[in-house]
Here is the input.
Amino acid sequence: MWTKENLFELVQEKLRDYMFIVVSNREPYSHVYSARKIVWEVPASGLTVALDPVMRACGGTWIAHGSGDADAEVVDKDNKVGVPPNEPRYSLKRIWLSKKEEEGYYYGFSNQALWPLCHIVYTRPVFNESDWNTYKQVNELFARAVLEEVGQRKAFVFIQDYHLALLAKLIKDANPNIITALFWHIPWPNPEVFRICPWQDEILKGLLSNNLLGFHIRYHCNNFLETVDRSLETRIDRESHEVIHSGKKTSVQPFPISVDFEAISRHAQSAEVKAEMENLRARLGLDNGEIIGAGLDRIDYTKGIPDRLRAIDRFFEKFPEYRKRMVFIQAGVASRVRIPSYQAINEEIDSLEWEINWKHGTGHWKPIIHLREHMSPDALMALRRLAHFFVVSSLHDGMNLVAKEFVASRFDEDGVLILSSFTGAARELGDAVLVNPFATDHFAEAIKTAIEMPEAERQRRMRKMRELVQENNIYKWAADMISDLVKFEFGES
Ligand code: F6P
Here is the structure.
């Protein structure tokens, strides 16, 4: 089994002479002002949850946008700060963006064009030429930071996600000796969908400048290869999943991302989490008897939160015997709220919750409790542990690490996961109760199945899912990518 120790050994052995650099838009830690004092926070992001343990194990430098309002206060002259802030293991180098750059690159092209384009959830992408120009400029800014950091040394640059699709090309144009891999954390749609992007060719050429390109599942790799085949002059080897473009080879492979199973499982067993479970119960007026359902999401229109609420509504309509016996706790972190489609989803969630609580609630019992405040890692873990059933209902999702975090946290081998079949995670976690979040009646029945599942069956399923996540953990994901890259680039077998 892969652990942080043997991942460290692999990096020492294979990438001994190389600098190890991760680049992403989102930073793993941000510094913010809280009542004039500077505190640090961990942003709500699957990407950083996954990559932080890898960087802790490997060391190196992580280059990312400094988005916290106190970020600039704590960095050195090279814009670097040691992280994790309480026990530094690697360097975080922050890049500064003006509001105009953030607007066009992050809120604009990344999240109003590429994000809805890649997630098939019927939100129309917005293609704005000035956003695209800013996206290019910001990719250049990241490229300059990487090149400055590398200097004349040998380096392996591990790029993350759709914000930085052009980065590898910009790096390699300046220094072809730098090795790059990019992991695309969201789905890749079919060619008919992607071809509406006016700048599809530049994006594909940018991605094909990487030595290795990773997606969560084979299906997304195939969609990508089809997209390339229909739009660029390339040679595609379908056996080895390699693309030759402008004389250069890119290997396109699936690497299902995961979580630090052992660390999560250990945290779940801590005394602090146990105390938080009691706090949460007392604060929410839960007296031990009720069935608790939970959902924990970044508030995004891809996560299927309204669909889950509609299923809960239908559940109480169909099975009124559960009124006053079941409570659903939705915890959510606000996200990208400057974008109109995100404002709309927040309003839709508010009005659905209000309506459902009005329709089914009696006395002090309300079927839905929405926790909108920032919750500590202990409180989030307490919520996972309190849940009799836990819902992940994405309409489309590359992987969904919230589902894997839930499984890793249930060391008691209890709790039922209700999981959308449209997540990458559903390919691995077949012992969850799988649902189509668009099909409200079937979803409502799945809630009943989860609630009424006998203990032995719950344990059998949870045990199997835990074995799987334990084996296919985040260290395996990183080791598989590094081993693949090394094999491909250095001709090792
Ligand atoms: O997992 C996909 C992703 O876009 C990551 O790139 C990102 O860290 C996460 O979702 C959260 O989004 P954001 O960084 O825009 O808050």
Remarks:
- The chain has a mean pLDDT of 96.
- The CA atoms of residues 119 and 191 lie 13 Å apart.
- The first helix runs from residue 4 to 14.
- The first strand starts at residue 19 and ends at 23.
